[in-house]
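Appendix B. Raw example, untouched.
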Amino acid sequence: MNSFEYYLPTKIVFGEGSVTQLGEIASTFGKKALLVTYDEEFVRSVGLLDKTISSLEEKNIEVTSFFGVKSNPTVKHVREGIKIARAIKPDVLIALGGGSVIDTVKSMAVGVFYEGDIWDFASGEGNAEEALPIITVLTIPATSSEMNATAVISNDATKRKEGFINSLMFPKISILDPELTVSIPILQTAISAADIVSHLMEGYINHNDPWAPMQDRFAQGMIKTIMDCMERLLKNPKDSQARATMMWASTFAWNGFYV
């Protein structure tokens, strides 16, 4: 085996109905939260916004919402979020969504304290030294962003998509509630499954250790697990066991555990 360091400080709160714990969890950081998510009409229509806001308000947490995250989050949108965060000075940032939302929040968390432009991190010209705490409420399992320190953002001006890593961007707590994934259409679920498998394949194919039975068998087992989940979900998209298992497998697909 090759030498390595492994650091994984994110606390996971997993289980059906665990989103109701959001208010209690957020209250440990303070009384003011900035909630970041997709378009307002969408998150309201599927019931995600009401579930999170009500849990926060029950604990008397002042919530400001920042909407509009798209797939392949842009540096322009991140800059807007940083301005809002600097203005309201939240105690905690909450990501309600999948990898795009979580990566946006991670970038905001480090960008709010940085005097330069957030794209400096993506281009390798800047380094974060401080960050706001992050809570994630995962709704689309695919990228493992809820338990890693990586963010990927796009710059439309330069036509570049770049990722950057900083341990300050590890979410403090990630809520994994499989019930929140039931509303994902089966096509989008299949796309997410392909994303999970692609991350597992990266380490499986690209490592240069001449003998890595633990790593290889972990990847093989996880890939087979995702295939089994999709087989069940194609028959019954509301299969709670398959939804839960796929969510947990996704979290481990790209957090450095087996490479």
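End of appendix B.
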